[in-house]
């Protein structure tokens, strides 16, 4: 289909302001900050006279409330009251985290990790073994968009503290 030259000129004149506005909007949205990232470290609890040492490897399971119930249920573990989450233990499969709608975050060899999830979540520490993973406690907290999360593994308890 061909249009007379005057029609194309008129059409361009009507589209140009909209295209310019769209380009400005795209640049404005693109210039916003990147994804939320919360940096963190997992360390062992300090012993008498010694500072805690970074955990070498493992995973964090990041779940919402419903996902936690599903994840624990798949392992045959009853969901405890929130006050007892830190002492939770058992044998689990990390594949059940994603099946329950959660995400797995790798802890590197320096004990460091990065979370990109915000809001109320439960974080569980999973230590890898050849057949299954070992659950070493969970903590429920409100995850901010940035900052630093320090997770401490004590003898029989998991603790978490948000730092600026």
Can you describe this structure in just a few lines?
With 164 residues, the chain is α+β, with helices and mostly antiparallel strands. It has helices at 5-30, 65-74, 95-99, and strands spanning 38-44, 59-63, 90-92, 103-106, 112-115, 119-128, 133-143, 148-153, 158-163.
CATH topology of the largest domain: Immunoglobulin-like
Taken as a percent bin, the fraction of beta residues is 25-35%
Share of residues in helices: 25-40%
What's the CATH first level of the largest domain? Mainly Beta
The figure for the number of domains is: 2
Enumerate the strands of the largest sheet in spatial order, edge to edge or round the barrel: 3-7-6-2-4
In the CATH hierarchy, the architecture of the largest domain is: Sandwich
Mean of residue pLDDT? 82
Sheet with the most strands, sense and barrel status: 5 strands, antiparallel
Give the assembly state of these chains.
single chain
**What's the N-to-C terminus distance?**
63 Å
Helix and strand string, N-terminal first? HEEHEHEEEEEE
Shape: globular
Number of helices: 3
> Low-confidence segments, ≥5 residues, pLDDT <50?
5-12, 14-33
Supply the helix-strand structural class. alpha+beta
DSSP E strands, number: 9
Q: Radius of gyration over alpha carbons?
A: 24 Å
In terms of topology, how is this protein built?
Blueprint: H1 5-30, E1 38-44, E2 59-63, H2 65-74, E3 90-92, H3 95-99, E4 103-106, E5 112-115, E6 119-128, E7 133-143, E8 148-153, E9 158-163
Parallel strand pairs: 1-8
Antiparallel strand pairs: 1-5, 2-4, 2-6, 3-7, 6-7, 8-9
Q: How would you explain this protein's 3D organization?
A:
This protein is an alpha+beta fold. The chain has 2 domains: 1-32; 38-163, Immunoglobulin-like, CATH 2.60.40. The protein has helices spanning 5-30, 65-74, 95-99, and strands spanning 38-44, 59-63, 90-92, 103-106, 112-115, 119-128, 133-143, 148-153, 158-163. The chain has a 5-stranded antiparallel β-sheet. The longest helix has 26 residues, at 5-30. The N and C termini lie far apart (63 Å).
């Amino acid at each position: 289909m061909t249009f007379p030259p005057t029609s194309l000129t008129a059409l361009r004149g009507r589209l140009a302001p909209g295209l310019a506005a769209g380009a400005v909007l795209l640049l404005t949205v693109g210039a916003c900050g990147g994804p939320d990232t919360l940096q963190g470290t997992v360390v062992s609890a300090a012993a008498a006279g010694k500072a805690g040492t970074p955990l070498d490897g493992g995973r964090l399971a990041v779940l919402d409330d419903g996902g936690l119930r599903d994840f624990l249920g798949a392992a045959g573990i009853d969901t405890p009251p929130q006050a007892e989450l830190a002492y939770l233990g058992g044998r689990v499969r990390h594949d059940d985290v994603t099946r329950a709608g959660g995400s797995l975050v790798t802890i590197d060899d320096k004990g460091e990790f990065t979370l990109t999830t915000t809001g109320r979540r439960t974080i569980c520490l999973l230590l890898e073994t050849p057949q299954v993973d070992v659950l070493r406690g969970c903590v429920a907290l409100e995850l901010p968009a940035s900052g630093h999360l320090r997770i401490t593994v004590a003898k029989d308890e998991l603790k978490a503290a948000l730092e600026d």
